[in-house]
Amino acid sequence: MRLAKPLLAEFIGTFALIFIGAGAVTVLGSNQIAGIALAHGLVIMAFAYAYGKDSGSYINPALVVAAVVAGEHSLLDAIPVILVQLLGGIAGAQALLLIYGPAAPHDLGATMINLHRTTLTGGFALEAIGTFFLANTVLNAGLRGTAGALAPIAIGMTVTVCILAFGPITGGSVNPARTLGPAVAVGNYSEVGLYVAAQLLGGAVCGLLYRLVWKHSGKAALPSERSSKLATADA
């Protein structure tokens, strides 16, 4: 029972991310980038508030990897979480397939690199850097607590700005579950390996940096708190 609640929270959260995020692509079309970006960001924000105390509401295997490399979670505990997230992503995409059918527009939100605008290497770099940015927000704003109760907003908005910045190029997935779920639904795995490798690399590099630099630095003081401490020291 110890793991039942966190695993259920991660499954539901990841299901919702794909159902709403990839569902927005399916309904709106890939050219409606602002709406798609907000759909992803807002659902992450909502479920982080809903389930953050139960599981951390990572809903992203790359973020779990980042937390393990950062020394915040054990690998043994991470494995079932990652498996449940992947299953949640697949289930979310299968629900979209059931609703919209195999002829659904926009490939049910499956993410593919736009080779008219970049290369495979460029797409890899975008996904790796975007995942690094997202993991940086989760580890610092969330786990280290620098954003306090606003951490879910910071995390959701990081996903939103990534999609706004390079969603038209790679889809702005920055999440192996987001990549894999729609790929399974449409049966197209041609770039899944590249996406997942980039995302895990970005998360792992951020986790290592966090472990070396920020892990033991504690919660950052607000400007007003720093001013108060300086005034006390001067006195």
Describe the structure.
The structure is a single chain. The chain has 235 residues and is mainly alpha-helical. The protein has one domain (4-234): Glycerol uptake facilitator protein (Up-down Bundle). It is 74% helix and 0% strand. The chain contains nine helices and no strands. It has helices at residues 4-28, 33-55, 61-69, 75-100, 120-143, 151-170, 176-186, 192-214, 223-234. Helix 2 crosses helix 6 (151-170) and helix 3 (61-69) packs parallel to helix 8. It is globular, with a radius of gyration of 18 Å. The N and C termini lie far apart (54 Å). Residues 220-235 have low confidence and may be disordered.
CATH superfamily: Glycerol uptake facilitator protein
Estimate what percentage of residues fall within beta strands. under 5%
Q: Shape from CA axes?
A: globular
Order of helices and strands: HHHHHHHHH
SS-derived structural category: mainly alpha
Question: How many domains?
Answer: 1
Largest sheet data = none
CATH T-level fold name? Glycerol uptake facilitator protein
Number of helices: 9
Based on the structure given, which CATH architecture is correct? Up-down Bundle
Q: What value does the average pLDDT take?
A: 91
Helix content: over 70%
**Number of strand elements:** 0
CATH class equals Mainly Alpha
Question: How does the SSE layout of this entry go?
Answer:
Layout: H1 4-28, H2 33-55, H3 61-69, H4 75-100, H5 120-143, H6 151-170, H7 176-186, H8 192-214, H9 223-234
Could you name the key traits of this structure?
235 residues; mainly alpha; 9 helices; globular; disordered C terminus
